Amino acid sequence: MLYPSVDRLKKEIDSKYSLVSLASKRARQMQEEEGTERLHKYVSYKYVGKALEEVAAGVLTKVSQDESTVYEDEI
């Protein structure tokens, strides 16, 4: 059984693509910068699982992006 469940995550983030993108970016941040945990206790020991737990807890949310901004990876 997966924790947190996809149904619970979909209540917080409406799109599966946005959820995957958000969780992967947060997991990378946690991997590169130790000590950036936002919850007191995690069930998962992997970074992606921890990021998904933060989404389920409502601590990690999607931020709307300015459409005029061009990022380096979009060029």
TrEMBL record:
<keyword id="KW-0240">DNA-directed RNA polymerase</keyword>
<protein>
    <recommendedName>
        <fullName>DNA-directed RNA polymerase subunit omega</fullName>
        <ecNumber>2.7.7.6</ecNumber>
    </recommendedName>
</protein>
<dbReference type="InterPro" id="IPR003716">
    <property type="entry name" value="DNA-dir_RNA_pol_omega"/>
</dbReference>
<dbReference type="GO" id="GO:0000428">
    <property type="term" value="C:DNA-directed RNA polymerase complex"/>
</dbReference>
<comment type="subunit">
    <text>The RNAP catalytic core consists of 2 alpha, 1 beta, 1 beta' and 1 omega subunit. When a sigma factor is associated with the core the holoenzyme is formed, which can initiate transcription.</text>
</comment>
<keyword id="KW-0808">Transferase</keyword>
<keyword id="KW-0804">Transcription</keyword>
<dbReference type="InterPro" id="IPR036161">
    <property type="entry name" value="RPB6/omega-like_sf"/>
</dbReference>
<dbReference type="GO" id="GO:0003899">
    <property type="term" value="F:DNA-directed RNA polymerase activity"/>
</dbReference>
<comment type="function">
    <text>Promotes RNA polymerase assembly. Latches the N- and C-terminal regions of the beta' subunit thereby facilitating its interaction with the beta and alpha subunits.</text>
</comment>
<comment type="similarity">
    <text>Belongs to the RNA polymerase subunit omega family.</text>
</comment>
<dbReference type="Pfam" id="PF01192">
    <property type="entry name" value="RNA_pol_Rpb6"/>
</dbReference>
<keyword id="KW-0548">Nucleotidyltransferase</keyword>
<dbReference type="InterPro" id="IPR006110">
    <property type="entry name" value="Pol_omega/Rpo6/RPB6"/>
</dbReference>
